[in-house]
Amino acid sequence: MPKLFSARDVIRALKRAGFHEVSQRGSHIKLKKAIEGGELVVIVPNYREIPKGTLESILLQAKLTSEQLEELL
User: Fold this and answer.
1) Cα–Cα distance for residue pair 41/66, rounded to 1 Å
2) Does the predicted model carry a pTM greater than 0.90?
3) What is the rounded CA–CA span in Å between residue 47 and residue 53?
4) pLDDT band of 73, cuts 50, 70, 90
5) CB atoms closer than 10 angstroms to residue 21
6) For the chain, which domains are there?
7) What's the farthest any 2 CA atoms get from each other in the chain?
8) Three-state secondary structure along the chain?
9) How confident is the model at residue 59 (pLDDT cuts 50, 70, 90)?
10) Residue 59 DSSP SS3
11) Which of the four pLDDT bands, split at 50, 70 and 90, describes residue 1?
12) Is 42 in contact with 31 (CB distance < 8 Å)?
C-alpha cells in the first residue's frame, strides 16, 4: 500500500521546493513558484490524507517526482 500524505506534509515539502502560498478558497490551497519563462501553480486540497491519484496530479503540476517529495519531507 502506498504511503498517504496529509495536505500539511505536502505543503511543507512544496514550500521547501520554492513554492509559496498565495490564496485559499474553501478547502483548497493555491501555491505558486516562479520559474524561467513563467510560473508553476499547484492546488492542494486541505485533506488529512490526500488520495494517491490526487497526489500524483499535484506532483505532475509541481514538476516533482515522488522521490523528490520524500526527500523534501
Assistant:
1) 18
2) no
3) 14
4) confident
5) 13
6) 7-67 (3.30.920.30)
7) 38
8) CCCCECHHHHHHHHHHCCCEEEEEECCEEEEEEEECCEEEEEEEECCCCECHHHHHHHHHHHCCCHHHHHHHC
9) very high
10) helix
11) very low
12) yes
> What is the helix (H) or strand (E) element at residue 10, kind and residue range?
helix 7-16
Contact 71, 60 (CB under 8 A): no
Q: What is residue 23's three-state secondary structure?
A: strand
Identify the residue with better confidence: 62 or 1. 62
What span, in angstroms and rounded, lies between the C-alpha atoms of 10 and 16?
Answer: 10
| CA nearest to 24, candidates 37, 42, 40 | 42
Count the residues in the chain.
73
